[in-house]
Structures are given as structure tokens and as C-alpha cells.
Task: inverse folding
């Protein structure tokens, strides 16, 4: 089991990597569009600042967290409204994001191990919340990197994103209105250092293999399956590639194929 303090250190490092990517940008570049329709680089950082804020409420004041939902005029637009509310000039937004994520790390470190925190449609431990924040930071960082046309180096932190992607297999099916599978899926991914990461029984008939980065791009819906080197064997694994979703809430729109060729088992 992953230690919470290690997770929080990785969350801080993942945030710092993205911070280094945007901190020196000219103000005009914060308005660059990203692959998320209608969202600039500024929106991506504002979204992270907002989600850190509501996660902090979940960890320290659950009633205030629930109030952010019950007071919303349109819960389907909660994410977009949150990003707009936290959007600010670059220097102000950076200060807000840095302060919020620092406060969240401290708050999660103080959450008792047996406490479940409220979240959208679910409840989770501080460990799961930290893992989800790493996933979100990495995913929105991918959008920022795409907007800037840069390739970020992979790290061991991808394993947290991949783990969450595997754990949310059933959620992806349910979010798309499909029955959650009852058969296991063996997942084998090649990490950044060439090591193998695996989940599920070795004798499972359904299997999913490929680069860890590609799997993480899939489950965060940053790439279409056709553009990834993932090999699906078996009907459940194959269907999973169409509905994979590591984040909470309704199904996202995903991304359109960019023209590269993936592998369909």
C-alpha cells in the first residue's frame, strides 16, 4: 500500500513540474487555447486551483463542501463555473494556486486514516484524494503541454495515474450507462524506466497492454484510443478503451482521433 506522505510528496512534485512550465510564460501565452474546448492555459490552472480549493473544503469542512454543490444554479456546469471564478491575471492566479495546493497537502496529511472525505458522487480516503489530485494535475498539465507544443518527461508518478485508471474500470462503464463487467482484466504497462507495471490475475482472458503513458492519456481522456499503442485482447478490454474514465462525474466528451494508428485487439 502506498504511504500517504509519499503520495503527497509526489503531488507536490507533479504540481511543481507544471508550475515550472507556466511560471515564466508571458501573460499573453496564458490565453493560448488548449485542447479542451473553450479553455485557455489560464483556465487549466484556474481549474486546478478551484479543485484544490473544494478538495480542501472536503478535508476540513464537509458542510462547506456540500454547500458548493447545493448552492450551484446548474450542477452540470460546476466545473466550468469554478474555473471561471478562479480565473485571474497570471501572477494572481499563480499565487492562488500555489497557496491552495500547499494548504491541501497539509490538510490531507492531517486526515485520520479511517476517514472518508466527501466528493462528487462518492466518498474517498485521503490517500485516494491525493491520488486523484495527482491524476488531475498530470492530465491538465498534458493539456497545457499540448498548447505549448512541448513534451514533458515521464516520471514514476505516472503509476499513480495508471493505478487510478485501473481502479475506475467499473466507473467508466457505469458513467457511460453500461453494465460494469464482472470478468477481470489483466493490465500490463511499460513504465518510463522500462519496468513492467501490472494489475489483475495473470490468467485473465481479457488483457490490456502497452506504454503506461498511453494508458494514462486514455483514462484521463487526453487521447483517442486510435492514437495510442494499447493492445486490447477480449471484448471487455476492448470496450474499456471506449469508456475509460479515471475522473469522477459524468462521461467526458473525450478527444477526436488525431490520425495516428493504435491497435485494436
Result:
Amino acid at each position: 500500500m502506498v504511504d500517504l506522505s509519499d503520495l503527497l510528496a509526489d503531488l507536490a512534485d507533479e504540481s511543481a513540474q507544471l508550475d515550472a512550465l507556466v511560471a515564466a510564460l508571458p501573460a499573453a501565452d496564458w490565453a493560448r487555447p488548449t485542447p479542451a474546448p473553450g479553455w485557455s492555459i489560464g483556465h487549466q490552472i484556474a481549474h486546478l486551483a478551484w479543485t484544490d480549493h473544494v478538495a480542501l473544503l472536503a478535508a476540513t469542512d464537509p458542510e462547506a463542501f456540500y454547500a458548493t454543490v447545493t448552492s450551484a444554479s446548474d450542477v452540470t456546469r460546476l466545473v466550468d463555473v469554478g474555473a471561471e471564478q478562479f480565473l485571474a491575471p497570471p501572477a494572481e492566479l499563480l499565487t492562488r494556486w500555489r497557496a491552495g495546493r500547499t494548504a491541501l497537502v497539509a490538510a490531507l496529511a492531517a486526515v485520520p486514516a479511517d476517514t472518508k472525505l466527501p466528493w462528487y458522487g462518492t466518498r474517498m480516503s485521503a490517500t485516494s484524494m491525493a491520488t486523484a489530485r495527482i491524476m488531475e494535475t498530470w492530465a491538465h498539465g498534458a493539456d497545457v503541454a499540448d498548447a505549448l507544443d512541448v513534451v514533458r518527461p515521464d516520471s514514476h508518478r505516472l503509476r499513480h495515474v495508471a493505478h487510478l485508471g485501473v481502479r475506475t474500470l467499473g466507473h467508466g462503464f457505469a458513467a457511460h450507462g453500461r453494465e460494469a463487467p464482472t470478468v477481470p482484466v489483466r493490465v500490463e504497462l511499460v513504465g518510463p524506466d522500462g519496468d513492467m507495471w501490472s494489475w489483475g490475475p495473470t490468467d485473465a482472458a481479457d488483457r490490456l497492454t502497452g506504454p503506461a503513458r498511453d494508458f494514462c492519456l486514455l483514462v484521463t481522456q487526453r487521447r483517442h484510443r486510435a492514437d495510442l499503442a494499447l493492445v486490447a485482447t477480449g471484448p471487455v478490454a476492448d470496450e474499456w478503451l471506449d469508456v475509460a474514465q479515471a475522473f469522477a462525474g459524468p462521461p467526458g466528451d473525450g478527444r477526436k482521433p488525431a490520425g495516428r494508428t493504435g491497435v485494436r485487439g
